[in-house]
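Tokens for chain A. Residues wanted.
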């Protein structure tokens, strides 16, 4: 802690001056007066470390603020809070641990690092007696971490689910509204800056799984369990699937789902069909939305921009402000999610129950639908509705089936059997369905 004029001040150092780092820095500089007025003391941006300090980010900074040496942030005895905005699992983690050992409080937006190695970071922070803030790791400008830690602290959470990846949501929206194929929608997302050159983490579902890991740990008091999250992406979704879903009264979204039931927690990320009338079905483009159902509150919905320099920068500065208050007042540090004394186990995907959409490509032969429905029946899968399109002699035609609730293990066994039928021309495709029947 240092002094700014006659006032004690909290000093901040930032590692990483990219999109989010620039947003956080801009807010700290341009809103310095507002922050001081609300907190009662100044928060000073003392140092920013980045490999590229020549690029103009449009922020007025003193010459001594920028450095290419990260140790000038992690090792500076005058810095109270180190903000890690580099991303990734390697250098970022090493620098956070170095800063913690030097007695620095931490703020990070690094959901991958927290989901996969957070236990080590939170343990180190606990030993050293420093805080770790991670509001910006999930939902951009949506204050969902504070909602779970504070706003709903009196609730037993039943489920959390949401759209937490704007890239995938933009692509699915484009495919839905314009009936374009996935590659075309992805290309446009990249051109607009909504998707990375390598979009695998986003469209493959891993980014959503990282965020779900953090949300589930906060909601249910379970250890960080990234390796237990069942994960599917959106790369196999077709305009035909979207059209059939619409005909059945649904929209397709990439959902992150954490659900407590029977003393265990389901953790899954996958394309999901939702009734068109649901509010979350209307969340389009790059927007995010997260439902939380508490036993005492019922459903609550949180909506906003899930990425970008200023929304995510706002979440970063929110953490800075909270931790600065703890530093100034000598309050107890705040670390990671609190694990329950008897945490719930994780339900494997094979035991999950859901409704299903099946898409079969079958040759136009007598009795094919009967054989398919027979296999489903033998595996305890009940049919709710069927769509069979115009017959084309000698060609494969689509058969779409919507089921009542079934068990994933039974579904997988049935589809393997159906795919082996001579009249089935291609591998079957499934999408899970959420919402009341």
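Reply:
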């Amino acid at each position: 802690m240092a002094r700014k004029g006659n006032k004690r001040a909290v000093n901040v150092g930032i590692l990483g001056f990219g999109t989010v780092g620039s947003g956080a820095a801009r807010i700290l500089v341009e809103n310095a007066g507002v922050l001081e007025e609300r907190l009662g003391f100044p928060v000073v941006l003392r140092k920013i470390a980045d490999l590229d300090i020549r690029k103009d980010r449009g922020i007025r900074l003193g010459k001594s603020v920028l450095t290419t040496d990260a140790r000038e942030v992690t090792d500076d005895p005058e810095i109270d809070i180190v903000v890690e905005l580099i991303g990734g699992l390697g250098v970022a983690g090493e620098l956070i641990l170095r800063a913690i050992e030097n007695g620095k409080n931490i703020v990070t937006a690094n959901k991958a690092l927290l989901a996969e190695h957070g236990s080590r970071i939170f343990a180190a922070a606990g030993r050293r007696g420093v805080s770790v803030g991670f509001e910006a790791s999930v939902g951009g400008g949506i204050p969902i971490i504070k909602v779970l830690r504070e706003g709903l602290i009196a609730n037993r959470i039943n489920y959390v689910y949401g759209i937490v990846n704007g890239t995938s949501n933009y692509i699915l929206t484009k495919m839905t509204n314009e009936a374009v194929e996935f590659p075309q929608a992805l290309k446009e997302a990249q051109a607009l800056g909504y998707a990375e050159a390598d979009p695998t983490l986003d469209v493959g579902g891993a980014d959503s799984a990282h965020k779900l890991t953090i949300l589930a740990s906060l909601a249910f008091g379970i250890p960080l369990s990234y390796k237990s999250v069942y994960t599917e992406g959106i790369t196999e979704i077709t305009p035909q699937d979207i059209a059939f879903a619409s005909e059945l009264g649904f929209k397709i979204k990439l959902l992150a789902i954490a659900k407590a039931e029977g003393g265990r927690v389901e953790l899954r990320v996958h394309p999901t069909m939702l009734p068109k009338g649901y509010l979350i079905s209307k969340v389009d483009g790059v927007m995010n939305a997260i439902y939380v159902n508490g036993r005492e509150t019922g459903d609550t919905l949180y909506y906003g921009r899930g990425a970008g320099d200023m929304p995510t920068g706002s979440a970063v500065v929110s953490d800075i402000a909270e931790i600065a208050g703890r530093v100034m007042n000598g309050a107890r540090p705040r670390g990671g999610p609190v694990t329950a004394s008897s945490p719930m186990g994780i339900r494997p995907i094979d035991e999950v129950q859901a409704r299903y959409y099946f898409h079969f490509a079958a040759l136009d032969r007598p009795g094919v639908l009967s054989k398919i429905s027979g296999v489903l029946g033998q595996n305890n899968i009940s049919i709710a509705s069927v769509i069979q399109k115009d017959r084309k002699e000698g060609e494969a035609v689509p058969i779409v089936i919507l089921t009542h609730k079934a068990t994933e293990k039974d579904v997988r066994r049935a589809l393997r059997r159906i795919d082996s039928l001579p009249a089935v021309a291609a591998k079957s495709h499934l999408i899970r369905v959420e919402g009341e029947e």
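The longest helix spans residues 309-329. The first strand starts at residue 2 and ends at 4.
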